[in-house]
TrEMBL record:
Transmembrane portions of the chain: 174-193
Localization per Swiss-Prot or TrEMBL: Mitochondrion membrane
Origin organism lineage: Eukaryota, Metazoa, Chordata, Craniata, Vertebrata
Listed PANTHER family: MITOCHONDRIAL CALCIUM UNIPORTER REGULATOR 1, PROTEIN FMP32, MITOCHONDRIAL
Top-level taxon of the source organism: Eukaryota
GO biological process, one term: calcium import into the mitochondrion
Membership in a protein family: Belongs to the CCDC90 family.
GO cellular component, one term: mitochondrial inner membrane
Keyword Transmembrane: yes
Name the UniProt record assigns to this protein: Mitochondrial calcium uniporter regulator 1
Location, primary (coarse class): mitochondrion
Length: 194
């Protein structure tokens, strides 16, 4: 072990100050032993460069394993989100198709009712032509019935439009929720990655 001071110069200094050669050498050897003991204590707490490199390599391999796990997890989560998104899209398409079928059915029913009402009114007008007074009253009743039917049709069409808008808003909410969920998961993985 190298000493970073001149032991012979220290012995000479002690001799100059009144110590004998033997006393000076004992003092210097005691100081050397104390320094060696202190250095041994310090060296037990220190890490060698090789040990430090080994520990760094172990940490880097653990980080690499965690990165691989994160990539696998990210891919599996994104595929799950994509499949869920596809399911939601299919459900939305089915709901849209059902709504369109309902609208078509209601329109057809309303047209049929309207045509039936018109044909019935025409029959009543032709049948009661000779009775003008009664035909006028019936005409008024038929007009009221037509007005009520038209009002019913208008209210049902308005209800269907409202229901369609409500379904559209629900679909947009689900889509936005799915997108924000994807973004949140991606940001979470990104934050864990960093």
């Amino acid at each position: 072990r190298k000493l970073f001071f001149d032991t012979h110069a220290l012995v000479c200094l002690l001799e100059e100050n009144g110590f004998t050669t033997q006393q000076s050498e004992v003092i210097v050897s005691a100081l050397v032993k104390i320094m060696n003991t202190n250095l041994d204590m310090i060296y037990t707490d220190m890490v060698t460069k090789v040990q430090q490199e080994i520990a760094l390599q172990q940490v880097m391999s653990h980080i690499g394993g965690v990165k691989k796990d994160m990539i696998i997890l990210e891919k599996s989560e994104f595929s799950a989100l994509r499949s869920e998104n596809e399911k939601i899209k299919l459900e939305l398409q089915q709901i849209k198709k059902q709504v369109m079928d309902e609208i078509t059915k209601v329109r057809a029913d309303n047209k049929l009712n309207l045509n039936l009402e018109k044909s019935r009114v025409k029959e009543l007008v032709s049948f009661d032509y000779c009775l003008l007074e009664t035909s006028k009253q019936r005409h008024a009743q038929q007009d009221r019935a037509l007005t009520q039917t038209d009002r019913k049709i208008d209210t049902e069409v308005a209800d269907l439009k409202t229901m369609l808008e409500s379904h559209k808003l629900d679909n947009i909410k689900y889509l936005a929720g799915s997108i924000f969920t994807c973004l949140t998961v991606a940001l979470g993985f990104y934050r864990l990655w960093i």
